[in-house]
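Model it.
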Amino acid sequence: MSDIKIVFDDENIIIVDKPAGILVHPTLANEENTLTKWLGDKYPEIIKLNWPDKTRPGVVHRLDKDTSGLIVMAKNPENLANLQAQFKNHKTNKIYEALVLGKIKSAGKIETEITRGEAGTQKVIESSYSFDTRASRNAITLYKPIKYYHYKNNDLTLVEVELQTGRMHQIRVHLKYLGFPIIGDPLYNIKPSRNLSKELNLNRQFLHAKHLEITHPETGNRMSFDSPLPNDLTEILNKMKENNE
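Modeled.
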């Protein structure tokens, strides 16, 4: 996992730029290719601390396996609690970029209830009255178009997304619900986006955590970090430019 880039590192926290293909922590399958395994290998003393969840040492928040970008991890349980409170109380700022099928004409806000779907997916509850007894959670996503593309009769939008809540698969679920599925997404898609993803040879969702802003748990300093689009996603945009009409 030498391709994990350290953006900031001190005795309290570490911020990394996670490539696609790496889990944040193991699932029931007990995977090895995880950020927690990488952290434990790099700093063995951290694993020995009294974490509230021994399977997730240092984990403040998560990115999906095939979502790239910035993520902060704590180096001790006290700073973990501080950072988790920041995320819970909306004291952080997380901004993503996504490429979606369709033309999003203006900025907007999506607010829905999200609950568990089938086979580990999530879904939007379409009305307040439902026979579904599974617990739901409020989810809020802000979005705005950055740039438009056209590729072989398909309109696409590069969109900037800001999370107001942090639900599992939230951006992917919300953009699909809005009618603009993320290109490359294997779960939340429609036939045209699946076909386009295959044609572009994109095997993961075009979703990147490009900006992270937190307050340092020890110093109280506000810290801001940015990450450029990785090469695989930049290459997709280059294909779009070559096929503009």
